[in-house]
Write a structure and sequence with these properties.
The chain has 60 residues and is an all-alpha fold. The chain has one domain (2-59). The chain contains three helices and no strands. The protein has helices spanning 2-11, 17-38, 41-59.
């Protein structure tokens, strides 16, 4: 079992170009979604509320 696993791992040394392309597209899509969420006024208000509460609790 161990020899077979070692052989499988060594046969796949790196990602192919298609895998890089899929990973790049997925990362760009996730980044775009995150940017859209964080620039939304509702989400900004929510984040500001969380930060304000956290600092008011720390400040006493």
């Amino acid at each position: 079992m161990g020899q077979k696993l070692v052989r499988i791992v060594h046969e796949d040394d790196g990602m192919s170009t298609a895998e890089y392309a899929v990973g790049t597209v997925a990362a760009a899509g996730f980044g775009g979604l995150l940017l859209k969420l964080l620039t939304s006024p509702d989400v900004q208000d929510l984040l500001w509320s969380v930060v304000t509460r956290a600092f008011s609790w720390i400040g006493g």
